[in-house]
Amino acid sequence: MKAGTRSSGRQLSMLLPLLFLVFGGARAWPWPSLSVPSSKAVGRVLNFFPVPVTEECLSDDSRRTGLCLNTYECRIQNGESHGPCALGFGVCCVFTLSCSAEVDNNVTYFVNPKFPGLLNDVGECSLRVKKISKDISQMRLDFVNFNLAQPNRKTGVCETDTFVVTGGASKDLRICGLNSGQHVYYDVDDAKDDITINIRLTKANYNRMWEIKITQIEFSQRAPDGCLQYFHDSVGTVQTMNFAINGRHLADQDYVICIRQSESMCSIVYEPCDENSFKIGPPLYSDTGIEGSGDDNGGGGNPMVSMDSFRECSDRVMMPCDSEEFITPQGGPGICDLLHCGSNFCSDKETPCRIESSTTPFVMRVQFGPGNREENPEDNLGMCIRYEQQQCSS
Ligand SMILES: *[C@@H]1O[C@H](CO)[C@@H](O)[C@H](O)[C@H]1NC(C)=O
C-alpha cells in the first residue's frame, strides 16, 4: 500500500511538467474538451494521458478503424473525425484516400472516386503505400468492398478490370471480379520502393465499387512466409477469388491459404460450403463414367480421364497430407488427397464430403493455370470450403 502511494506520487511528479505542456498546447490547439481546465478535467487528463500516443478506435458507425487523435492532429494529417474517443478528449480519426494519393498511415481506407457511390468511368486509379517504419514486414489488405468487372467468363482472365499490387517482395497480385470479405497479405520486407496498387478499368457502363482497408504489419504480427491469406479463427470459410454468383475462378493464380493452428487443436476438417461450392474444371468422373465430355473446349480429345490426367489438372487445389496417414473422421470416411480438382472436393462421391487432415501447418495451395483454354464457367466457379479445427484427443 505504502509502496504504491510512493510510486504514484513519483509518477505524478513526472507527469506534472508534461501536464503543463498539454495545457500549453491546448490553448494553441483547438482541442475542445480541454478548453475548460477545471480540476475535474485534470483528473480526466491523467486518465487520458497515454492516448496521444496513437491508439486505435472504432468510428461512430462502427464500420471503420481509426486513430484516436486530437481534432487538430486529425485535420493536419488529412483524416476525418468520426466521433469521440478517449472519453471525449480525442476524435476517432479515419484516413480515407482515393486515386493518385499516397498512404503514410497505419490504417487507411482506399476507396473509389464517388464512394459510396458507384464508379462507371474508364481509367486508371493508383495508390502508393509507404511503409510507416522500417519494421513493417507486410501490408494486409482487407477488401471491405471489392466489386470490379468479371474476368472473361470462359478463360478466367481479368480483361476488363484489373487490380494489381506491385513493388513488394511477394509475387505481384492480380485479381478482378467480386472479392468483398477477402483479404491478402503482401510482403514488403525488402521492398525499397513504395508499394503500388493499380486499378485499371477499361470499359464504361460497369458499376464498380471498392473500399480496401490497408494495415501495416510489423514482423511480430506477420502472416507466416508464403501465405497470401491467413485465417486466425479456429472455424471459418475460405473461398477462392471471385467466388460469387455468376462468378468464375481467376486464371493465373498460385498462392497459399494458411490457417493458424489454434491452441489445443490438432487437426482440421474441411467441408464444401454447399454441393455447388467446389467447381474447378469439368467433372472428372462419375459413377456411370465420364461426365461432361468437354465438347465445347476443342482441345480435349480423349474422353477417358485417367488418374494420371487427374493428377495433371492445370487448375487445382492442393492440401498437404500423407494419404497413408489419413484420418477417418466420425462422420464417415474422408480420404485426404493431395490434389483436388473437377467438380468434387472429395475424390469419391462421399456424402457428406468431409476431409480431415492433421498435417500442420494447415494450408491449402491454389494453383490455377493460365487462361488459355475456354471452359464452361459453370464448371469453374471455384471453391468455398468451411473449415473447423478439431481438439486434440488426449
Ligand atoms: C497497425 O494497426 C494494427 C491494427 O489495426 C495493429 O495491429 C498494428 O500493430 C499497427 N501497426 C503498427 C506498425 O503500429
From TrEMBL:
InterPro entries in UniProt: CUB_dom, CUB_metazoa
Q: Which PANTHER family match?
A: CUB DOMAIN-CONTAINING PROTEIN (PTHR33236:SF4), INTRAFLAGELLAR TRANSPORT PROTEIN 122 FAMILY PROTEIN-RELATED (PTHR33236)
Where would I find the CUB domain in this sequence?
99-217
Pfam families from the UniProt entry: CUB_animal
Superkingdom assignment: Eukaryota
Provenance organism: Cinara cedri
Q: What is this protein called?
A: CUB domain
Q: Where is the signal peptide?
A: 1-28
> What are the record keywords, sorted?
Disulfide bond, Signal
